[in-house]
Design goal:
By secondary structure, the protein is an alpha/beta fold. About 50% of the residues lie in helices and about 15% in strands. The protein has a domain at about 55-175 and about 265-300: Bacterial extracellular solute-binding protein, family 7 (D-Maltodextrin-Binding Protein, domain 2), CATH 3.40.190. A 6-stranded mixed β-sheet has the order 7-6-8-5-9-11, covered by helices on one side. It has a 5-stranded mixed β-sheet with strand order 2-1-3-10-4, sandwiched between helices. Strand 6, helix 8 and strand 7 (about 215) form a beta-alpha-beta unit. It is globular and about 65 Å long. Bound molecules: calcium ion. Calcium ion (CA) binds near residues 178, 236, 237, 238 and 261.
């Protein structure tokens, strides 16, 4: 039985059991015997030609030097240059300097560029399953999605799906847990959410839509003025570090803790032919440097968020929690969205079942360990 069949079969079996089980089926769905990085490292025999510098074009979905995401990928390129002794150069093209920010997937797929740095949820129009690779509301934390990708079958599914587009992805950062967002008025009940115009993209937007919110998509540069003028009533963005820079607290002072993006990953994805042409040493360097970028970006978000939170508090911003009925409505809406999308797309179902099997086991472990600890710290 191939890996995908195995996952699907095991997962469908587990889905027929009661929710949240630590049952035999979801234990079977996690195959620890394969590590995707190891396979890639041993399959190549091409070596570096020291007389020939390799240059790769990498386009991003962020403006130049954009905090954490933009600066993180710039450090990644510097690191590759350093550890390759200058034999591999990754040239960074910020958003719109070579291709538009949200055209990087197609440009890389066609070979116009060799790589891109962005987020998988942007490509849900290609395949709804891709949004799951960024994570789901009430789903994986940053630590859990890393662990699912590396050891729980995530990378195998992602790479299988992206291969159809001639692409080879790596995790390239994680925003860490995001805040629920900024509201012009306090949210005291589910009734307060009805008809609310909110900037909230992706799967989370679909969940909020089922809760009565009207999700709006806006370019980053228009969010502040839209909030200020009341064109929208609320926005989510990322977390204290990036939200503070956007100044949302001045026009929408009610700031809520979040559950809609608990650990969204970013990606550094390569054109498959460009990747395969690389010497095995260069491939290994990219694997190491992308892993470093992935963890460093996660930790940098944490480091910047803790400072920005204290600054926001000094500015008088109160951090609020959604009423319980909103959390319950969010969970119910999420199940509906996941079921609907699973019924429409087999890939979505495969990925979601893999995530669910892993998450059910992980939740149980976190309950008796991390959650216990944090409740008592
Ligand atoms: Ca967000």
């Amino acid at each position: 039985m191939n890996r995908r069949k195995f996952l699907t079969t095991a997962s469908l079996t587990s889905a027929s059991f009661a929710l949240g089980g630590c049952n035999e089926s979801n234990r079977q769905a996690i195959d620890y015997s394969k590590h995707p990085e190891k396979k890639e490292l041993t399959s190549k025999a091409v070596h570096i030609n020291k007389n020939k510098k390799v240059v790769m074009k990498l386009a991003t979905s962020w403006p130049a030097h954009f905090p954490i995401m933009g600066t993180g990928v710039e450090k990644f390129a510097q690191r590759i240059n350093q550890i390759s002794g200058g034999s591999l150069e990754i040239k960074i093209y910020p958003k719109n300097t070579l291709v538009p920010g949200l055209a990087v997937f197609d440009a890389c797929s066609s070979g116009q560029i060799d790589a891109f740095h962005s987020g998988p949820y942007y490509w849900k129009g290609k395949n709804s399953a891709f949004s799951l690779y960024s994570g789901i509301p009430f789903g994986f934390t940053a630590e859990e999605i890393n662990s699912w990708m590396l050891f729980g079958g995530g990378y195998e599914l992602w790479r299988e799906h992206y291969a159809r587009y001639n692409l080879y992805p790596f995790m390239g950062g994680n925003t860490n847990i995001q805040m629920g967002g900024w509201y012009r008025k306090p949210i005291k009940s589910l009734a307060d959410m009805q008809g609310l115009k909110m900037r909230i993209p992706g799967l989370a937007g679909e969940v909020f839509s089922k809760m009565g919110v009207n999700p709006i998509l806006l370019p980053a540069g228009e969010i502040y003025t839209s909030l200020e003028r009341g064109v929208i009533d609320a926005t989510e963005w990322v977390g204290p570090a990036l939200d503070l820079k956007m100044g949302f607290y001045k026009v929408a002072p009610y700031y809520y803790s979040g559950w809609h993006e608990p650990g969204s990953i970013l990606e550094v994805t390569f054109n498959k032919h460009s990747w395969q042409k690389l010497a095995s040493e260069h491939q290994a360097m990219i694997e190491v440097a992308s892993s470093e970028m992935n963890s460093n970006m996660t930790y940098e978000f944490h480091a910047q968020n803790i400072l920005a939170l204290s600054q926001l508090k000094e500015l008088g911003v109160s951090i609020l929690e959604y009423p319980q009925e909103i959390i319950e409505a969010g969970k119910k809406s999420l199940v509906e969205v996941l079921n609907e999308q699973s019924a429409q797309n087999e890939d979505f179902q495969d990925v979601y079942q893999s995530i669910k099997s892993y998450l059910d086991l992980s939740k149980e472990w976190d309950r008796v360990s991390l959650k216990y600890f944090l409740n008592h710290r």
